[in-house]
Structure formats: C-alpha cells, structure tokens
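Fresh eyes needed here. Have a critical look at this protein's tokenised backbone.
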Amino acid sequence: MSKLPRQIWILALGRLLSEIGSGFTLFYAPIFFVQQVGLSATSVGLALGSASISGIAGRLISGTYADRWGRKPMLLLSTVVLAIACLLFAVTNDFPTLIVGCLVQGFGLGLYWPANEAIVADLTTGEARRFAYAITRLADNVGMGLGIIAGGLLISSTGAYRSLFIIDGISFCCFLLTIAFGIQETLQSPKRSVKFFSGYTTALRDRRLLVYVMVNIILTIYISQTQTTLPLYFSGFIPQLDGARGFNPQLISTLFTGHLLMTIAFQLPVLKLLQRLSHARSLVISGGFWVLGFICITITGTTNIYQLIWASLGLGLFALAIVAYTPTASALIADLAPSSLRGVYTSINSLCWAVGYAIGPPLGGWALDRSTQFAHNFWLGLAATVPIVWAILWWLEKLIGAKDYKNS
C-alpha cells in the first residue's frame, strides 16, 4: 500500500471528507422531510427515486467527457453540483423543491463516479489497482460511518436537521479544494473531436464487457437488498416470543451499524487474502458469501431462537461479500478498458449500479407485500440465483483468460 501514488491517498482523503457530509444526511434526510417538512412518505420516496433518472444522464455525460476533456474537470463539476444540491435541500419546504434537489443530486453523483474511478485506473496497474480501489472504498465507508454517528449526535442534541445539509455542502467544498490543489489531470492526450456516443458504441462491442455487465447488475441487486429490503424485513417479519413480529428500531440500527463497522474492518484483510486470485474468481468467492448470508437471513425469520446471532452472522457475511466485490469489480473494469475509453467503461460500470438499484428495491418491496412465507422464501430465491452468477463468471474467465491479474 505504501507504493500507491500520492494522488491516490489525496483522493481517498477527499472522499473521506465528502462521505462524512453524506453520512450526515443519508439516514436523516427522509426523517426530516416527512416529520419536519410534512411531506408524505410516498412523495419523499418518489423524490429520492428521481435521482436515479438524472444520475443516468450524469454518468453518460461524465463517461464521454472524462475521456474528452479530462477526469479532473468532471470531478470538479460534480462537487459543485452536489454542493448546490445540498443548499437546495437546506431550503426545501415543499415537494417541487425536493424533486429539484434530488434531480440535481442524482446528476452530480452521476458525474462523480466515472471520473473518480477513471482517475484510480489511470494511476495504477496490476494488483496495486485493486488495493487502490480498496483504499478509496475504505475511505468512503469510514467517512460514512463517522458522518452517521456525528449526525445522530447533532440531531439528538440540537434537532437542527437543516444544518446537516449545510455541513454536507461544506464537505463537498472541501472535496473540491482537495481535487483542485491535490489532484493532477491523469488523462493523456485528451480527444476533443470524439462524438458523444462513439465511445459507448465501441465499448458495447466488447463481449467481455457485456458479460461483465450481466453479472455486475445481479450483484448490485444483492447489495440493494441489504440497504432497502432487509431493514423492512427485520422490522416486520422476525417472529417474537410474545407473538409480535419484527426487531425494534434501536436493534435494527445497532445491527446495521455493526454491519458498516465490519465492512470497514474486513476491507483490507479480505483483499489481502484474495490478491492471488483473478478478478472473476474473487467475485465467485463474493457470491459464496452471498449464498451463506441469504440462508442466515432466512433462518433469522423462520426460527424463534438465536435470531440476533443469525441476523448478525448474515450481515457479517454480507459485509464479506461486499468487500470482496467492490474493489475487485472496479479493478476488473479498469483492466478491461482501453486507456482511451476508461471514462466510458467506468461509466458503464456505474450504470450497472443504477440499473441494480432500479430493480432491487421494487423487487424486494413486491416480495414483502406477498405472504409472510413468500417473504421468508425470497431470501432463498436470491441464494438460488447465485449459481447463475458463478456460471456467468466462469464464462467471463474464459473470455478474459485464466491468467492471474496480479501479473497483468
């Protein structure tokens, strides 16, 4: 890790600062807009979901212009847009303003990810690339955790929800300064005459990329279940001795805080264990953790004993699955991408997340709206799809070649 370029560490520091601000607002924004502003839960959900629409546009633009004008301009633009979104949230008192704020935020996030991931790819090669992605993801998780804790303390002591958005905006301004003065442009020989979609049409002729997209969308759907469906499942489907169902909110909060801490703690050790495996085989290991985790969640909902242990074990396995997946997937897409199309390839990788999060939450909500037994079997159904992931990864391994990426 000490051999990573200095700019990777600067980028990680900037991401940590921005994620502290995001942690301030992530869990508390819906509560504020429903309980303080007075909007309905449905309208808030629709507004938050609208961010994915503008996010797709942001990813397409960032992927193209990160390869044309450079990574740094797109990253700077994204921080400005995200800071504006924070100010809009701070003054929101009605549904239309919330919609505008969410659309601006989604666009900013869309601009951010392809350029950010492309910078890491430009600065690293081989196994160092996977460690670089792990370090930046670790910075994200640590910042998010600190932000959630600090935000909770601020709200409990002052109740000043709007100040969270202002602090979030300040964090993006700090990130902007970090990029402006600490990061040099990494794109070599920008191509200013490239047509907007020409990079995407070239990339989509890459059979390896198309196969990767299939498996990446499925894995992203799994991740979305842990953040959206699973809290609802814990709150309403876990049998209690008194005949009631569901963990109380404090226990759910504790479980997911532990999950985040495990994600932070496992990131580098898991990557160290997987470093001698190819990217595709590392993702196979991630799939194994998903299978075991889904089974543990099913047991949590269908037994009356040791439920907390099974729930904790399931979330721990999900943490292992995620840390085996995130840096590996980013490094894989960077290895597949020609240097002239890294912005486009990382944009497509980011679009997989947008698609996964468009499919995952509605799918989980639909499952929970069926019978209780159907909700329990939903997790087993997800586990049953993992062999499909393994088959696609075997296909991808054959297309790429079975060489160890460490030596690539």
